[in-house]
Amino acid sequence: MMNIATLTLNPTIDVAYSLDRFVHSDKLRTAEQKADPGGGGINVARVFVRLGGNARCVYMSGGSTGAALDALLDLHQIVREPVSIEGETRISATMFEQSSGHEYRIVPAGPVISEAEWHTCLDRLSSVECDYLVISGSLPRGIPADFYAQVASDAKQRGVRTVLDSSGDALKAAVAAGKLEMVKPNLKEFQQLIGEDISDPILIGKAAQDIARSGSARLIVVSLGERGGILASAEHVIECAAPKVASVSSVGAGDSCVAAMVHCLAAGKSNEEAFRYGMAAGGAALLTPGTDLARPADIRRLFEQYVSET
Ligand SMILES: Nc1ncnc2c1ncn2[C@@H]1O[C@H](COP(=O)(O)OP(=O)(O)OP(=O)(O)O)[C@@H](O)[C@H]1O
Ligand SMILES: [Mg+2]
Questions:
Q1: Pocket test for ligand 1, best of 44, 250, 251, 301 (most atoms within 8 A of CB)
Q2: Res 39: pLDDT
Q3: Helix, strand, coil shares, percent, the chain, to 5
Q4: Which SUPFAM superfamilies does the record associate with it (predicted)?
Q5: Which CATH superfamily is 1-143 part of?
Q6: pLDDT of 1 above 60
Q7: Distances (CA, A) of 184 to 12, 101, 173, 219, 276
Q8: Domain boundaries in the chain?
């Protein structure tokens, strides 16, 4: 059985609204209101559970919104391990304007975390039992940039493989520390990481393989949105086109991709199969509205298309 844990330092309650047309001053009335537990690691856990695995969520939770988030996770049957914080858990909003087809997203910065709180989180992580630890999302204010590097290095010592999907200095520090199983930057995050503005697939593959060969991470997946992605390990570089889908909402593509890849890797599948499954899952996330994540039936169908193409 596959057991993963995920880490979400800055989770959210994702609220989605759908309206005919935005106008100022007037009340914008909507019949539908939907709230989901969200944030990188929580999204990964939700997709992982849908695929039949076990996922435990370590996350920070505070205030009345934190209590609501805890309850939402229970509804989704996610095993949860909240670390209590003083600040209020954030609420993010996605608003869909039907007349234009545009989607608007409001994402608050979230609470500031104290040193005592992030130390508690490190302690908690040191006793979580799992095969893979998936870290996804940005660092909240107050947490030092090398936090993920520290978590990955502690995990490795305990024989736990760390998968990281983050950006900026947090990603840079973790790659520099070099204890990662896999990283999944998108193109912009990858360009920032290497400090070069490349977008040619051959060059991306070379730069990603350099990182793998340096020992920083065993696998590097650079996701390229509608252009698919590139997988690099010390031994090989593989390119994969994106599945052809009619996009409804691109929210959750990255998290769905990571969840599906880890699901395959944990099951002992090849790197290449895991990669294609991940690319299929990213595409599958586009088929669901708002903050909805990829559905297993869509993932399998899009994956089968790759198999039948080759
Ligand atoms: N327009 C698209 N058409 C088909 N597949 C897509 C599209 N956008 C994304 N995908 C799939 O999802 C994967 C991940 O998407 P992307 O590269 O946009 O990740 P991301 O920027 O990290 O996303 P997120 O905003 O969720 O963090 C892609 O590699 C691809 O397989
Ligand atoms: Mg992403």
A1: 250
A2: 96
A3: 40, 25, 35
A4: Ribokinase-like (SSF53613)
A5: Ribokinase (3.40.1190.20)
A6: no
A7: 21, 29, 15, 9, 14
A8: 1-143
Cβ of 43 below 6 Å from ligand 1: no
Summarize pLDDT for 216-272 with one digit per residue, the tens: 999 999 999 999 999 999 999 999 999 999 887 778 899 999 999 999 999 999 999
- Pocket of ligand 1 contains residue 226 by CB under 6 Å: yes
Ligand 1, atom nearest to 282 Cα = 12
CA 132 – CA 30 distance, rounded (Å): 41
φ/ψ (deg, to 5) at 240: -140, 130
Question: Each residue of 85-104: pLDDT tens digit?
Answer: 999 999 999 898 999 989 89
3-state secondary structure of 13: strand
| SS3 assignment, position 194 | helix
48-70, pLDDT tens digit by residue?
A: 999 999 999 999 999 999 999 99
Closest residue by CA, ligand 1 atom 15: 225
Is the minimum distance from the CB of 247 to ligand 1 under 6 angstroms?
yes
Q: How far is the CA of 259 from the centre of ligand 2 (A)?
A: 12
